[in-house]
Amino acid sequence: MRGMSLPYQSPVAWQRADDLFIDLHKLTINTFPSFERYELGSQTRRAAYSVAANLVEGSERQNTGEKLQFLNVSRSSLAEVGYCVHVAKRLGYVNDARFKELDLLIRRVGAALNGYIRAVKEGRSM
């Protein structure tokens, strides 16, 4: 899909959120215990999907208030992803090194998303 040039693919926040979703999807399917694939794994995937999906929907809104509403939902979903990863670490589904990698990815998405929200508020977004 990255070969196509769709408007929402421009923001760095979406690109990073998309990568995070794919990474977490693979992680939860391939490494979580089978019983967790439908519990914590499913919730992690849904939250990570929501980050990227709300960025997509928000980027297409013409009204600034509506756009910000979707971007804020995306940011809230990112916080949920962070908690899911924290729980996965505490339960022993991810080791310390993998947790640090995921935490960095989550922080990078957050930084880009916060920058995008700031740009929207200042009228500098697309």
Describe this structure in words.
- The protein has a domain at 38-121: de novo design (two linked rop proteins) (Up-down Bundle), CATH 1.20.1440.60.
- It has helices spanning 12-30, 40-60, 64-90, 96-121.
- It has 126 residues and is mainly alpha-helical.
- 31% of the residues are buried.
How do you describe this structure in short?
The chain is mostly helical and 126 residues long. The chain is built from four helices and no strands.
Provide tags for this entry.
126 residues; de novo design (two linked rop proteins); 74% helix
Strand content: under 5%
Q: Any idea of the CATH class of the domain at 38-121? A: Mainly Alpha
The parts where pLDDT drops under 50 for at least 5 residues are: none
- Mean pLDDT score: 91
Overall structural class, as computed from helix and strand content, comes to: mainly alpha
Encode the helix/strand succession as letters.
HHHH
Count of DSSP E strands?
A: 0
Number of helices: 4
Shape summary: elongated
